[in-house]
Amino acid sequence: MENLKETLELLYQLQEKDVKIFELKENLTKLPNLIDEKQKKIADVKASFENKKAEYVRLNSLKKEKEALLATKEASIAKHTSDLNTIKANDMYKNCLLEIEKAKADKSVVEDEILQLMEDIDKEIVNLKKYEEETKVKEAEINKEIADAKQTIEKAKENIETIQKERDEFSKTIDKNILSQYERIRESRNGQGIATIDGESCSGCNMVLRPQLIVQATKCKELVYCDNCSRILFNKKGIQE
Question: CB of 141 within 8 A of CB of 183?
Fold first, then answer.
C-alpha cells in the first residue's frame, strides 16, 4: 500500500485522541455514583443529628411529665391542708396529716428529678449546638465535593466534545478503508484498534508475537494484525526507517 507508514502514524495519533475520549467517558460513568454516595453521606449526617436531637426531646418530654406530676402533688397538699380545717374526728385528722406529709415527700422527690432533668437538658443543649456546628461543617464539605464532582462532569463533557471534534476532523486525513477497519476493531477493544510492537509483544494484549508478524509489520507493506487481539500492528521502528 502506498504511504502505509504515514497512514499508520496518523492512525496511531487518532487513537491517542480516541483513548482520551474513552478514558473521559469511563470517568463520567463513575462520577454519578460518586455523587449518589456523597448525597447519602449528607443524609446519614442529618440522620445522626436527628438521633441526637431525640434525646433532647425525650428529656423535655419527661420534664413535662414530672412537672405535671408535681402540680398533682401540690394540688393534693393544698386539698388536704384545706380539709384540716373541716375535719373533727381525731383519726381522720391524723390520716390527713399523713397524706400531706406523704405528698410533700413525693413532691420533694419529683422536684429533685426535675432539677436533674434541667441539668441534663442544659448539657444536651450544649451538645446539640456542638453537633449542629459539626453537622453544618460536614454537610458543607460534602456539598463542596458534590459541586466539584458536578463541575468535573461538565468539564469532562466539554473536553469530550472538543476532542471529538478534533478527532472527526483529523480522521478525514486517513485512508477511508484503513480507517474503517480500525473503527471496527476499536469498538470491541476499549477504543484501541491499533497496537505498537513492544519488543516481541503486542502492546494491546501483551501476547508474544510470531517473528514473521514482526517482520511484516516492520516492512509496512500491508496491514498486519495481532493473532490474539486482532489489533492492527504498528512498528515504530519500521516507521522511522
Answer: no
Q: In the chain, helix, strand, coil percent, each to 5?
A: 80, 5, 15
Could you tell me where the beta strands, DSSP code E, fall in 91-181? none
Read off the C-alpha cell for 3: 504511504
Question: Is the overall model pTM greater than 0.90, yes or no?
Answer: no
Instruction: List the domains of the chain with CATH numbers.
Output: 20-171 (1.10.287.1490), 176-240 (no CATH)
With beta carbons less than 8 A apart as the criterion, state whether 197 and 210 touch. no
Q: For 171-227, how does the pLDDT look when each residue is reduced to its tens digit (9 = 90+)?
A: 999 999 999 999 999 988 878 999 999 999 999 999 999 999 999 999 989 999 999
17 Ramachandran zone, left/alpha/beta (phi>0; psi -120 to 50): alpha
